[in-house]
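Predict structure. Chain length: 265.
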Amino acid sequence: MTNILMLTGPLFMMQVYDRVLASRSVPTLIALSGLAIGLYVFLGVLELIRSRILTRIGQRIEEKLGEPTFDAVMLLPLRISKNEAISQPVRDLEQVRQFMSGLGPVAICDIPWLPLYLAILFLFHAYLGWLAVAGALILVALTLSSEVILRRPMKDLAQLSGARSEFLEAGRRNAEALHAMGMRSSYAARWRETNAHYLDEQLQTNDAIGSFSVVSKIFRLALQSAVLALGAWLTIKQLASPGAMIAASILTSRALAPIEQAIGQ
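Prediction complete.
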């Protein structure tokens, strides 16, 4: 469904080009724009659901493999030297879970191109440029809001992660004593409690990050169609060419994509 709904932008572009420009009908343009907005909202809901499903898949992997991995770490010092026995398996599992829980694009190399794209849009028409600037400012504001809102949860999560790692490392260092004194099962029970607290905090944080990412993505898609609609209106008024209308829509999407990606980081 999400991939079908991703066709909203191209189909909207085609209908604007074939129907709106041919008939020069502003009401038709308004009706098509309203339909596109509704489809984008539906797409946003599905994207949010998919993001949360991926987060829970990562958590399920942790739940299924967490205890066997912990047992492996606790048994390593009994089978090999202490210098070789490290908590790497748990860190490896953490990397797998993080990979399954979200995307990790690098946008820093693309952001410097944003002013160039905006300048080209202003060459097409000032209205197109200012609409793109407004969209960029909203995305930047969304990025800053996500930073402010997520700063404390991310800090708490980092502290829990550190405590979790220290607990694991203490168990590794004292694995022989815990095994000899018959305390390994009790230590494992405390590990499950510590790990469960960490996973709950991480699930809430990932949900919040995913929500910001989905909102920014859907906003960018809707903005692309808004630029197309504005370009169509300018074409009807003979203030811009049909080619500029399409190029402006594509350029706006390309210019704002790095900001959207940055929100996810």
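Summary: The longest helix spans residues 26-79.
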